[in-house]
Amino acid sequence: MVKAQEPVCDDPVDPDAGARPPARRRNPLSGQGAVIGVVSLGGVVGACARYGASLLWPTPSGGFPWTTLAVNSLGCAVIGVFMVLISEVRSAHRLVRPFFGTGVLGGFTTFSTYAVEIQRLIADGRARTGLAYLALTVVAALVSVTLAATVTRRLVVGRQK
Description:
Elements: H1 33-56, H2 66-89, H3 96-108, H4 111-123, H5 127-160
């Protein structure tokens, strides 16, 4: 019986020939150190300003949280002005928005305190006041940002034309 001869190949075929190396996964935080740093620094500035407001205008025990309402409304108004200025009037350095918009104003406004104050009002048997505060803050924040952006746009952008 004659055995069939297998073909001889002196040049073995590499199964990976021509294949690309696996793509490196990019770290989502890669190159974001400066952004994280300015947001953190801005957050410290904003939180200190908010703390200062609470020292200047403390909310008495069992009283309506006017300070938090004012801080949140003011912060929303400032973000309205800020966004018009950096998006419609003049472009800003890439770190200005994270520093001021996210950091300072994020640290200054305090919607977590707002939520705790609502919970406290309800737990103290003042559910109507808590629900009124809940609605009033949302309305005040939306009106503040809209009004501030509109006025800024009319004052600044209108002059540029």
